[in-house]
Amino acid sequence: MQIPIGQKIRALRRERDLTQEELAELLGVSVQAVSKWETGGGLPDISQLPPLASVFAVSSDELLGINVADEEAEVQRLVDEVYAPVWRGEVEDSQGYMYGKYRELLKRYPGNLNILSSMLGNGVNIYSFQLDDKPEEKPAFLAEVEQIANTILARSHDVTQLMGARFWLLRLYCETKDYEKAEEQLAKFPVGRDGETYNTKSMQSWLLSSKGDYAALQKVKSENIAQDAYMLLQEMTQLGGVYHGLKRPDDAETVYRLNIALYELLFGGEEWSLSEATAVAYQSLSVCYARRGDAEGAVANLEKHFELMRNGNE
User: Fold this and answer.
1) What is the per-residue DSSP string for 154-198?
2) Does the structure show a pLDDT above 60 at 163?
3) Which domain holds residue 168?
4) How many structural domains comprise the chain?
5) Is the pTM of this model over 0.90?
């Protein structure tokens, strides 16, 4: 149960061992005003809330009896409840269902950033895929979804919420073919510890695909594949080393060969400098051959190793 602000003021005043006269002096109001607040005969003016909170060393929310943590926990519970029937496959129009439910929640918790962030993607998807046969509704709905995103960008300090808002705005502007605004969102994309949630490359890919710039899109996708493949090839090379340590040279050779075959499949020898891991795989493979007394195979693989290292240095 929420405590009336007058009772809260009286309790905080007594906790700080202040008299009504001392509190009135600190706030620059009359003793009668303080007395009315505490007895419920009147309410402090809204301009008095920050000074009151400062005197008592509490937040304005606490002064008003609002427990922010409890409210956010309740909001998260309600958001989860909205998604539950969708996850269970009980809803046919999941986008419309969730968007409508979030709208209802906003009436209870106006401007709540968790709710706004949850409904933003639904709004963009509805605009993109469900309003083609209702062109008269699109302008108003577009404005509503933009407002949701801009509210998040203006008020949130959460990196994930900010990244999500810019990502969905970019998607929205790609749909409206407003590529200048889409590029603005890409340029303003924040960098944070949880940046893997969304990343600029995925946003850039979406923009290039929408614009039909497939030459640039191919370059971006190739770079993405190269980065992911490099990490995989590194892990495979290290696994081969583990097999060497376990005295399992046949398994080590298998892994090294798979490493090299994967690299050649992906890059076809055109960008040999991309993978230091593959150069190491050739070096390790040459050791395998040397230990078996196959000097020719050892030299051939060692030459490949030096070729890759040389190209990489260049």
Assistant:
1) HH---HHHHHHHHHHHHHHHHHTT-HHHHHHHHHT----TTTTSS
2) yes
3) 89-215
4) 3
5) no
